[in-house]
Amino acid sequence: MATFRNRDVAARHFGKKSVRTIDAWLAAGYITGFKADDGSIHVDLDEIERALRVNPKMRDGRQPFGPKARIVQMPIVPEPKAPGSDQ
Q1: In sequence order, what DSSP letters do the residues of 40-81 get, joined into one string?
Q2: pLDDT, tens only, 69-79
């Protein structure tokens, strides 16, 4: 069963800050847009999930460093920030 959401909700669901990525995926033909009676465009979240698995040109924002990133625990404890410093 399809899970339709408007472009803004879909963008946030996939870790995007704006609808521009959703619009780019629509423009490239990676996903299908569905026009509602009020003229707004909705997308199927399930379709996007499937497309993300098979299309390497689509990046999932929920994986901020990409699928090949290797993030490990720091071997040292970072220095505490000095009060009033912005670093």
Answers
A1: -EEEEHHHHHHHHHH-TTS--TTSTT-TT------SSPPPPP
A2: 676 776 777 67
